[in-house]
Design a protein that fits this description.
Oligomer: single chain
CATH architecture: 3-Layer(aba) Sandwich
Strand order of the largest sheet: 2-1-3
Order of helices and strands: EEHHEHH
Strand content: 15-25%
CATH topology: GIY-YIG endonuclease
Number of domains: 1
Number of helices: 4
Shape: globular
Number of strands: 3
Structural class: alpha+beta
Length: 94
Amino acid sequence: MNIKPSGWYVYMLRCNDDSLYAGITIDLVRRLKEHNYGAKGARYTRARRPVQLVYQEAAASRSDAAKREYQLKKMSPGQKRLLVQRYDNDRMRK
């Protein structure tokens, strides 16, 4: 599948309690700062700071990003951890 990024990203954060949070954004750096320091961070992550970016994926549109986010949120915790582990392994090889 050849995706032409539109500026939209799907991401996952590892929270301080080791849980994983999925979201979408057009600016990963800004959104990570909001999750860690701002009032605009998701309620879920505000209670579990600090968070760190552990997964990101480009999306062709906002709609595609939202659909992928929905898929990630429906995954079991084990499936999410496996996805993050594979993502880490792929990054290490590059």
